# Entry
Amino acid sequence: MKTVIIGGVAGGATCAARLRRVDESAEIVVLERGEYISYANCGLPYHVSGVIKDRRALLLQTPAEMKAKFNVTVKVKNEVIAINRGKKTVTVKNLNSPVGETYEETYDKLVIATGSSPIRPNIPGADLPRVKTIWTVPDTDLIISFIKENNVKTAAVVGGGFIGLEMAENLSHAGIKVTLIEMLGQVMAPLDFEMAQILHQALVENGVKLCLGDGVSMFSDKENEVEIKLQSGGTVSAELVILAVGVKPNGELAKAAGLEVNPRGGVKVDDHMQTSDKDIYAVGDVIEVNDFIFGGKTMIPLAGPANKQGRIAADNIAGGDKTYAGSQGSSVAKVFDLTAASTGANEKTLIKRGMVKGKDYERVIIVQNSHAGYYPGAFPMTIKLLFSADGKKIFGAQIVGSEGVDKRIDTLGEAIRLGAGVSALTELEFAYAPPYSSAKDPVNMAGYVAENLLDGKVKFADWDEAEKNPGALLLDVREYVETMAFSYPGATVIPLGELRDRLDELDKNKRVIVFCAIGVRAYNAARILSQHGFEKVFVYPGGSRFYKATHYKDYITHGDAGFEKTLPPEKSRGKSITLDCSGLQCPGPIMRVFETIQSMKDGETLEVTASDPGFVRDAEVWCRRTGNTLVSKGQDGKNYTAVIKKGSGEQISGRAGGDGKTIIVFSGDLDKVIASFIIANGGAAMGRKVTMFFTFWGLTVLRKTKRQKVKKTFMEKAFGFMLPRGSGRLKLSKMNMGGMGTAMMKKIMRDKNVDSLDSLIEKALKNGVKIIACTMSMDVMGIKKEELIDGVDFAGVGTFLGEAEESNVNLFI
Ligand code: FAD
# Structure
């Protein structure tokens, strides 16, 4: 019997190899239109950055090897252009032939494994040479050589699915500044928004500029760049664009042959992988599959299902009786230091299906360490579990963390496959030793928490519950020392140990949202409150780590925040005491720092290593608020390091009411700006910490007088031309009189020995006034860093608000 397989990569190659193993006498021909068969398309993004250095590593099999090992005839660069079901032949175009030779290949059984192709949306300019897709080895070669030849420094990735994210990461690793544009309000659609926020935070921290909730309306060629017009009206310029906006099944051949296809072009098959023609099988990205969770049909283009289906088709062609039960979309992706994985349905899908939380489904979100906290290298993971309101069916799970995410998502995926309910999760037995897990594995914990929820022992808040219920009482039950590193806005702090004695301070009639570091103490507090007559008590899931990730915009200084990737040389760190907090989960590291510092002398330094990624940021704020000095911070592999010197820092109250002064300089009017600097210098002279935050028109004050050579878009150039360049060009807000009033004012100031604006700025910088340029306004107005005077810091509103919290005077000028 002769089997012809169209497509020689994941599903096709597996089918061919399996068929040979089960039927030594079969004649097997693989027709592949590309140059390569059985290559690792999932590894392609990692070759772009050089993580996978050797291109040959991507090519898993060659036609010669397939012949030698499996006696399979592989014809590459042979494209099937028609399936002739009546004659049981396929028409093949030999792409090697200069004259476009075609021929017919007969078959007894045919397998369509043509996969899918990246979508090139119907947007003007989507076919420009700088706009590329990544799907095959030649695509990858092209991207790599384009980067090299053009010394590409900026790229835009359109699409925030797993391929888009992998490309964003790998282009960043290759030293390219990446902007990621995604039409949805989040990346990685299989995750729910709040889980994706953890990825957003990581992307921004790693220097990727995110444009979420914004689509591309046009690409146009501009000198050595593509200008990308966004639907919001904004523009992004990049030397290279990667389109990763999804895939479409290569189902045209099947459709033209009269086989049944769905409206998206996906080939319909039964559970034996047979199409509407029983001699024709189809596998992989080109087919529609059963949705394992809810039944019905769906399309899930992933390598695992393609390989399994290829194997099943082979067995059935050889006379077997194998079936494919359906796909549940288990997937995992690396996003910089994070791993994001999901299986089954997400909450968006449940809601879309008309399901209601509390009635049809429930959910829990927990944060757990990858292994025992006391063993070095434990890394927290956030797990979201969705299940039926009676707990008998698990709909899906999502996990974002680092190590151990894959193992837990697969366990949950298999639990779903085997029809487990949430109680079964508590019973699963995991191999345990400290380097690998905890005695209660995170999956067990998800089961316990789900049971508690179903038993009515706990109610959980939404991730944005505080914003949705402005009248709610926010109760933080962490220790006071922890609030030095991070405080929940507007929360009342009563440490768990004091709660029983201080219940009368709380209003029983109010909705109470209880916060802590990871959710455990909040649960204990909620139990206390519920048993003392508080009826509306909700635990904030995941604690401060999850809160900060879901509200990351409030805690990040904009685009290029992030960690130094290497530590300063040991000598300059003045190391005296080391503290290894790896494996300790928040607030462990900061508590240990607090305890250790107490027994140290002023001036001694403490070098702290922690695996908790939030630690260095916490340490920074903690030092400022406790009068200690953060000498350096860094990341060394998977560990985060902070060197802290005891004392020598100005102690700032943890709550509002420090004695700093903050001035928002919004105006670009000469008189207003002079007034701002006089106040700022006055504050600095009184020994106060003064921060000036220049935003919108205020930014013009900080521009260098001389034109700087910087790359700008047309709009940015036009804007730059119209904006005054530097303090010398500012005008009075009143009585400018075509410049006469301004000149008169400058003369009067000179005559009366009042400092000019230039010298006021110089003095302010000398006196330690912190001058911050608002990065968001810079972006909007097209002002580049190089155009601003030296000594200016760049940050966003998060930094300003942090400073404002520690000030008792805040002016808007
Ligand atoms: P393919 O593997 O795409 O093979 C189809 C082959 O058919 C192609 O080589 C094509 O040239 C050939 N063909 C098409 N039409 C014809 C014709 N008319 N005649 C002859 N030949 C034809 N999946 C995961 O699960 N995890 C991942 O991490 C992952 N990462 C990915 C990263 C990238 C960059 C890409 C591109 C894909 C990734 N995928 C991943 C998806 C995964 O590769 C696909 O789901 C899988 O390859 C599908 O297998 P398939 O056999 O259906 O199609």
Summary: The radius of gyration is 31 Å. The chain has six domains: 2-117+249-317, 131-245, 337-454, 475-555, 562-645, 660-812. The longest strand covers residues 361-369.
